[in-house]
Amino acid sequence: NVILPESVKEVGECAFTGCSSLSSITFLSSDCTIADQSDTISGSESEPEIRGVTPSTAKDYAEKYGKPFRDINSDSEIGDVNGDKSIDSNDASLIMSGYAAASIGSEMPFEMWTADTNGDGNITAADASLVLGYYSSLAVGNEMSFLEYAALNH
């Protein structure tokens, strides 16, 4: 998974062509220019999910080429596992509970994509740690979004 910070203003031709392990690409900039080709962002077997805000060039690209899109400002946000519109120690605790449940073969008690905070495709203690780090940074005046924080800290 890839998170492109707001500072990325352009994705060129073939930048993510045939990336077999890419499951998602998140655009934090609403106006990032994406090369106008269907394979600029493509997997070898399945299409990576394109994540961004609505409206955005990411959403426009996904719609034009029939690719999956998820609005990162929808009701559920990465890191906000309990859906209370706040990323805090409760979310970290739930991630750890989900990780423990999955380790013994039980189902996750929440949508997996909200708990995979570092974008590696797994729910682990590292995801909970990232949430706790973000929550701590808020206490000292951090004003960046969780996705911006995650892009800088993993």
Quaternary structure classification: single chain
Helix-residue proportion = 25-40%
Question: SSE order in H/E notation?
Answer: EEEEEHEHHHH
Number of helices: 5
Instruction: From the alpha carbons, calculate the radius of gyration and give it in angstroms.
Output: 16 Å
Largest sheet: 4 strands, parallel
Mean of pLDDT: 87
The secondary structure category is: alpha/beta
Percent strand? 5-15%
Uncertain runs are none
* Largest sheet: spatial strand order: 1-3-5-6
How many strands appear in the DSSP assignment? 6
Based on Cα principal axes, name the global outline.
globular
Distance between the termini: 12 Å
Describe this protein with a few key phrases.
4-stranded parallel sheet, 5 helices, alpha/beta, 154 residues, two-stranded parallel ribbon, globular, 12% strand
Structure report:
There is one protein chain. The chain is an alpha/beta fold and 154 residues long. 32% of the residues lie in helices and 12% in strands. It has helices at residues 57-64, 89-103, 112-115, 125-139, 146-152, and strands at 2-4, 10-11, 24-27, 33-34, 49-52, 69-71. A 4-stranded parallel sheet has the order 1-3-5-6, sandwiched between helices. The chain starts with a strand and ends with a helix.
In short:
With 154 residues, the protein is an alpha/beta fold.
Topology, element by element:
Layout: E1 2-4, E2 10-11, E3 24-27, E4 33-34, E5 49-52, H1 57-64, E6 69-71, H2 89-103, H3 112-115, H4 125-139, H5 146-152
Parallel strand pairs: 1-3, 2-4, 3-5, 5-6
